[in-house]
Amino acid sequence: MPIRIPDQLPASDVLREENIFVMPETRAATQNIRPLKVLILNLMPKKIETETQFLRLLSNSPLQVDIELLRIDNRPSKNTPTQHLDTFYRQFEMVKQRNFDGMIITGAPLGLVQFEDVIYWDHLKNIMSWAKEHVTSTLYVCWAAQAGLKLLYDLPKRTRKEKLSGVYRHQVQQPFHALLRGFDDEFLAPHSRYADFSSEYLSEHTDLDILATSDVAGVYLASTKDKRNVFVTGHPEYDAHTLHNEYVRDSNEGMEPVVPVNYYPNNDPQNNPRASWRSHGHLLFSNWLNYCVYQQTPFDLEHFSEANFTKDD
């Protein structure tokens, strides 16, 4: 089944060229189907690029998914046209009275910024708190995972001395967990962060299920027992050239970044990078939609209640 997005969203043309089934709102309105309602809070600067990446992963499911895009505030964007934001994005006040089957909170380039110094930190906390009562399952990605752990477990910000950048090998820790169904014992996934997520620290200070880890990158995937909060510390949504673009950007700014690990052939930035994580990324999002959202959410979102949710896989 397709993802349902606004008719003129730029991502629709990109996805159609990739032979991904995208259904415009005008056609979806004629179908008597209860689609999943998924909200994407996009915190990344290049919003069109990021929304396309996430929509690509959400399309890999037999479920019809109705996407709505949310912005954190109404400040002008340096990287996204105002017309695009005004046309396709909603303010929180427009959705806070509603319920959603799922929500994705993206990463943000705030790895070296303290939470209290983030200009929209209080507003983000309000949205995360709102999700407890209005969203069946929330997926926190990269920086949002660190922010979610702060809100839910009051974990302080933990920052690495050097940025973690590259494609790392991970090991599955709970092979029979719903989120990992179909996963190989080892898989690759990209990271681009300063945050530190060690398995020992999360095990000691939270009751999370630690699902996948890396000897170098730490915890990659974790979930609450009821699967209502899922934390992904990397970037399964990244395109093949996203890490390259970040490396070039940081180099041009004189930051002398390290070459992303296990990314360029022969570790040479002059070589064209190849994505080695697409299959795992699609499977992760398909599992999240199926086992954390579709099989947990009430049919009638107006009767949303925490009593609907169990801790069983």
From TrEMBL:
Pathway: Amino-acid biosynthesis; L-methionine biosynthesis via de novo pathway; O-succinyl-L-homoserine from L-homoserine: step 1/1. It is an enzyme of class 2 (transferase). One of its GO terms (biological process) is L-methionine biosynthetic process from homoserine via O-succinyl-L-homoserine and cystathionine. Keywords: Acyltransferase, Amino-acid biosynthesis, Cytoplasm, Methionine biosynthesis, Transferase. It is found in: Cytoplasm. Substrate binds at K163, S192, R249. CDD domains: GATase1_HTS. InterPro entries: Class_I_gatase-like (IPR029062), HST_MetA (IPR005697), MetA_family (IPR033752). It catalyses: L-homoserine + succinyl-CoA = O-succinyl-L-homoserine + CoA. GO terms for molecular function: homoserine O-acetyltransferase activity; homoserine O-succinyltransferase activity. Its EC number is 2.3.1.46. PANTHER family: HOMOSERINE O-SUCCINYLTRANSFERASE. Transfers a succinyl group from succinyl-CoA to L-homoserine, forming succinyl-L-homoserine. This is Homoserine O-succinyltransferase. It comes from Vibrio scophthalmi LMG 19158. The gene is metAS.
